[in-house]
Protein: tRNA (guanine-N(7)-)-methyltransferase
Amino acid sequence: MNSEKNPKNFGHIKSFVSHRAHMTPSQRDAFERLMPVWGLPYQDHTLDLEATFKRQAPTILEIGFGMGETTLKIAQARPEDNFLGVEVFPSGVGALLKRIEEHQVENIRIIQHDAVEVLRDMILPATLAGVHIYFPDPWPKKRHHKRRLIQPPFVQLLASRLAPGGYIHCATDWENYAEQMLEVLSQSPLLTNQHDGFAPRPDYRPQTKFETRGLRLGHGVWDLIFTRNQHPNPDTLILEK
Ligand SMILES: C[S@@+](CC[C@H](N)C(=O)[O-])C[C@H]1O[C@@H](n2cnc3c(N)ncnc32)[C@H](O)[C@@H]1O
Structure:
């Protein structure tokens, strides 16, 4: 279904544009061989995280991992956590699959699908230990701001999927988007800012590819870390699809 018209999409207009699926031969090879091993198909019912990762461990969802270099580094530095990466871009999926094989990491799984639908349909409420959203597409033109991922209905969905005490960590190099993130996250009744305004970059987050590009262009970088409240008002949870 066209998600632009789907009333169950929390007011979400697609945050990405579908490009033709260009992949390098080695990305395609990795995609074909390794997606059946580390990939999960999108499904319209909830995922059993324990069965998926073959262990009980805190699970972090990453939205829009790009080429996956940051995902790999964080997963290597935090072997005790599970990482579920969601990305729509096929060459990025191929690139992360290649890295998983080269570095023999076992705590990453990949879903190639719109993260809004993955969260809505596949993730049970109050289950995630964390969410990473690093350098989401900034959609700089004002008429495109509606495509930005961090908007109130989506943040409400995101917060509902976090376990109490779980965190959302966002970063961006667009000042105006950073301000929007701070405003929207601060307004969620389910979330509490862990810092006074923006956060210092935590040690576990390495510099990402898009961040490097932004810094080269003279942009600043803003991190935000919010946690899900222990005792939210149940009326504010989105429990049904
Ligand atoms: C600007 S890139 C940042 C990539 C990476 N996080 C980094 O910092 O280098 C944003 C990525 O988010 C992906 N993306 C955008 N909207 C998405 C969605 N709704 N679901 C999954 N991925 C999405 C895009 O395909 C793109 O690869």
Remarks:
- The radius of gyration is 17 Å.
